[in-house]
Amino acid sequence: MQRSKEERSLGELFSELSHETQDLLRQEIDLAKTELSQKALRTIKDFAFLAMGMAAAYTAFLTLVATIIMALGTALAWWLSALIVTLVLGGISYSLIQKGVHDLRREDFAPRRTIETLKEEKRWVKNRL
Question: What is the mean pLDDT of residues 44-69?
């Protein structure tokens, strides 16, 4: 049989508070891990967009170099077609890079839910004391 809260000793109450506080801290650590891993996955996706944009930009640069070479060595049709390809790849790379940069700037890396629950638990512990 359990004794009521009024019958328990001060040591038992502090022991219970200690165990409950430890449980809360473990739960907060788990929440922080989950929240940070979700943010890390979104950040990895954003960096992937940046990497794809950079790869497309590099391809556009190589195509531009080929365009210059063709313009110097052949008739108008060759370099004009190469220039069109360069502009298309440049537009693709620009849009991919802009998407990645925009999403990275928007990302908030602080674990907001964890901070809020820690504040709530701080108030809870104060009330328990």
Answer: 87
* CA separation for the pair 90, 24 (Å, rounded): 52
Helix, strand, or coil (residue 118): helix
The C-alpha atoms of residue 97 and residue 68 are separated, in whole angstroms, by 25
Question: For residue range 75-95, what is the model confidence (pLDDT) as tens digits?
Answer: 666 777 777 777 887 898 899
In this prediction, residue 2 has a pLDDT band, given cuts at 50, 70 and 90, of: low
When pLDDT is cut at 50, 70 and 90, the band that residue 1 belongs to is very low
Three-state SS sequence of 14-79: HHHHHHHHHHHHHHHHHHHHHHHHHHHHHHHHHHHHHHHHHHHHHHHHHHHHHHHHHHHHCCHHHH
For tokens 């004794």, what's the residue?
A: 3
The CA distance from 117 to 129, in Å, is: 18
Structural domain boundaries in the chain = 11-117
Closest CA to 82 of 62, 97, 104: 62
- Closest of 89, 71, 88 to residue 79, by C-alpha: 71
Would you call 111 helix, strand, or coil by DSSP?
Answer: coil
